[in-house]
């Protein structure tokens, strides 16, 4: 074996998360007690007992990281964010706490339309400057890969602008970003009386342009009262699929509308939110192999009930992933461990299921087959935590537990602080 560039040693355990969602999550986490992890050229070269390392693999050039008897796991994957936007909506938060609903605020011209106005006004440079601190906070929580949606442009020029910003941000800092087109997030104000024309703009101009420029891996739709009907969502997703993007769907969030069934019908990678999913919808997701992405921070933040039925989804055999849903309207939070805590307290997941949902479960949702686990040959995306086992993440609620974060073999967070911009 070649000399290691990095060795993480003295762990309580390394969770390699190499199992499957079809087995009990505790087993799927595949813990390796007291193991060490060796890294070379950005990839995992060794996982196992320190005594099993061949002589000479640890040399003077090897950086040795002492885990101080705490646990190590894969970098988190956040499969649902709207992290690129301008402006803020603290006033709407206040209004909701005084009884206004998300839909009422949207109908009065606030909500997504509010953020669209400020995001259209912002330049690429403005959006980059505003997003960088959010991404840094996410990285400090141990998130090494995140999906980011457009959806605050709602015209050709501004949807392209946001996706280009996502691309530039991914190259500018260590948190790797996976882009999703969300031109069907809301009907823009200027098209309110011309829905059909906006549908044409999405399917004939925005989707083809984004596909041609290779700016998005997924295409998502907000299927909801006040946003897009199921028929409209189907039309957008079929066009996106033809153009080479994988469908996703904001489904059954505020009302039960058969969104999960549509996600299954179009072969979506994920159905997200699912607070109001029906039993038939759960069965459809299981049969079609669609991942359920739960975002309980939004359920809390919008003060709506119920929380999505995470327990039922797991028991039906659905891969369940968890995201922050970072956005200015329904979840102004980069805190993935908080989402894990809520998933245990309110969605009915066990701590092991919540951990799966933020690592391997989320990587599979994004089609990232070598992410969300610690396997020899895979990219070395690791977190050294400041607690001895994963149960402390949801239990010690909402605090940061990631001490050292490693992305592609490079230490990018030390003592809970990001080292680079
Ligand atoms: O996932 N539900 C739709 N989209 C976001 C909210 C976006 C916003 O309010 O700005 C969500 O919750």
What this model shows, in words?
The model has no long low-confidence stretch (mean pLDDT 97). This protein is 36% helix and 20% strand. α6 (156-172) runs parallel beside α7, α7 (195-212) runs parallel beside α8 (230-242) and α13 (336-345) runs antiparallel to α14 (351-358). It is α/β, with parallel strands linked by helices and 421 residues long. It binds N-(iminomethyl)-L-glutamic acid.
List the helices and strands and how they pair.
Elements: E1 6-9, E2 13-15, H1 25-28, E3 31-33, E4 36-40, E5 43-48, E6 63-66, E7 72-74, E8 76-78, H2 90-97, H3 102-107, H4 112-121, H5 124-140, E9 143-149, H6 156-172, E10 176-184, H7 195-212, E11 218-222, H8 230-242, E12 246-251, H9 259-265, E13 270-273, H10 279-288, E14 291-294, H11 296-301, H12 310-315, E15 320-322, H13 336-345, H14 351-358, H15 360-365, E16 382-385, H16 392-395, E17 402-407, E18 410-414, E19 417-418
Parallel strand pairs: 1-6, 8-9, 9-10, 10-11, 11-12, 12-13, 13-14, 14-15
Antiparallel strand pairs: 1-4, 2-3, 4-5, 7-16, 16-17, 17-18, 18-19
Helix pairs in contact: 5-6, 6-7, 7-8, 9-10, 13-14
The structure holds N-(iminomethyl)-L-glutamic acid.
Provide the gyration radius in Å. 21 Å
How far apart the termini lie comes to 34 Å
- Average pLDDT, all residues: 97
CATH topology of the largest domain: TIM Barrel
How many extended strands? Answer: 19
How much β-strand is present in the residues?
A: 15-25%
């Amino acid at each position: 074996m070649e000399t290691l560039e990095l060795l993480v040693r003295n762990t309580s355990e390394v969770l390699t998360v190499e199992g499957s969602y079809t087995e009990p999550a505790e087993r799927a986490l595949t813990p390796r007690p007291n193991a060490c992890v060796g890294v070379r050229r950005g990839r995992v070269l060794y996982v196992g007992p320190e005594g099993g390392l061949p002589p000479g693999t640890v040399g003077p050039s090897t950086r040795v990281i002492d885990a101080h008897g705490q646990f190590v796991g894969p970098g988190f994957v956040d499969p649902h964010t709207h992290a690129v936007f301008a402006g803020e909506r603290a006033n709407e938060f206040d209004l909701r706490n005084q009884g206004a609903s998300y839909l009422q605020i949207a109908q009065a011209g606030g909500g997504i339309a509010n953020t669209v106005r400020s995001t259209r006004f912002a330049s690429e440079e403005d959006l980059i400057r505003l997003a960088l601190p959010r991404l840094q906070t996410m990285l400090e929580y141990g998130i090494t890969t995140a999906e980011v949606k457009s959806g605050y442009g709602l015209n050709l020029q501004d949807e392209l602008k946001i996706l280009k910003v996502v691309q530039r941000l991914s190259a500018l800092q260590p948190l790797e970003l996976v882009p999703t087109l969300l031109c069907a997030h809301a009907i823009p104000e200027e098209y309110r009386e011309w829905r059909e024309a906006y549908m044409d703009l999405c399917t004939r101009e925005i989707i083809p342009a984004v596909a041609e420029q290779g700016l998005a891996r997924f295409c998502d739709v907000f299927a909801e009262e006040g946003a897009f009907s199921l028929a409209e969502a189907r039309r957008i997703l079929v066009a996106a699929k033809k153009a080479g993007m994988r469908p996703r769907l904001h489904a059954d969030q505020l009302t039960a509308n058969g969104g999960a069934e549509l996600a299954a019908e179009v072969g979506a990678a994920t159905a997200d939110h699912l607070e109001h999913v029906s039993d038939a919808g759960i069965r459809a997701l299981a049969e079609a192999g669609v991942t359920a992405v739960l975002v309980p921070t939004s359920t809390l933040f919008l003060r709506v009930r119920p929380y999505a039925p995470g327990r039922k989804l797991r028991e039906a055999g659905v891969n369940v992933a968890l995201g922050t849903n970072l956005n200015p309207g329904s979840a102004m939070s980069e805190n993935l461990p908080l989402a894990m805590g809520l998933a245990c307290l309110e969605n009915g997941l066990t701590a092991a299921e919540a951990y799966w949902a933020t690592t391997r479960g989320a990587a599979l949702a994004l089609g990232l087959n070598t992410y969300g686990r610690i396997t020899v040959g895979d990219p070395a995306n690791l977190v050294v935590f400041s607690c001895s086992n994963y149960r402390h993440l949801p239990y010690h609620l909402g605090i940061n537990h990631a001490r050292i974060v490693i992305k592609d073999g490079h230490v990018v967070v030390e003592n809970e602080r990001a080292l680079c911009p």
